[in-house]
User: What shape does this take?
Amino acid sequence: MTNLTDKVVIVTGGAGEIGKETARLFLHQGAKVVLVDLSQTSLENAKVELEKYGEVITVQADVSQESDVINYVNKAIEHFRSIDIFFNNAGIEGKVSPLIDQSIDDFDKVMSVNARGVFLGLKYVLPIMKENKTGSVINTSSDAGWAGEAGISPYVASKHAVVGLTKTAALEVANENVRVNSIHPTSVNTRMMRSLEEGENPDGAMERKQQYEQVIPLGRYAEAADIAKLVLFLASDDSSFITGSQYRIDGGVSASSN
Assistant: This one.
């Protein structure tokens, strides 16, 4: 893999399993990391885990709030003087419920983080990358960004929105040598999946997990490291001719679907 030494990386959702593991791999490659998350306590704990691997700073932020996004971008510039890579990863799952039973407030909350948060990140990071004439953005969507899934309509809508934002942004900044791609994980062994399993089958979360695993040809959930390795590839110059693309990381699920 291309050397990432001294590259400056922003990771939103940085205290979650995927964000934290991705940050760890970036640090192993010599990058400098700005870890962004809503929970200050989780950020502090993550920093303790990660700082032994390299230089990392933390910024508490609600990615759906414009002022918070401006702040984490400014902190990155103040501390590291640049932004080379942006893992636009923060997201929430929302409630498990049929569409007709979803409240407007719950819909708005999921969209504000998963779609508005991605939009705001792009809005304030891309100008810096354009000025530098280089950069890579990786937006986290989901396999739910490809198809419908009963019970999580706000989440599905938000992850479809990420695809549109990714493709549009990629077209708008390609002439400045800035790349924008999205990743689409299936079930990952994280807190979010445990929440979904319990929401879909409160009395049988383990049974629901087994049902999910049965539709994955590889027969298991992804681990955070599986996702992180793809992010590093898309962040590096090894993927220098890839932009506007959607990468499904799903254990073979897409092999039997459109």
Q: What stands out?
A: The mean pLDDT is 93. Strands lie at 8-12, 32-37, 56-60, 85-88, 135-140, 178-185, 246-249. The chain has one domain: 8-188+223-255.
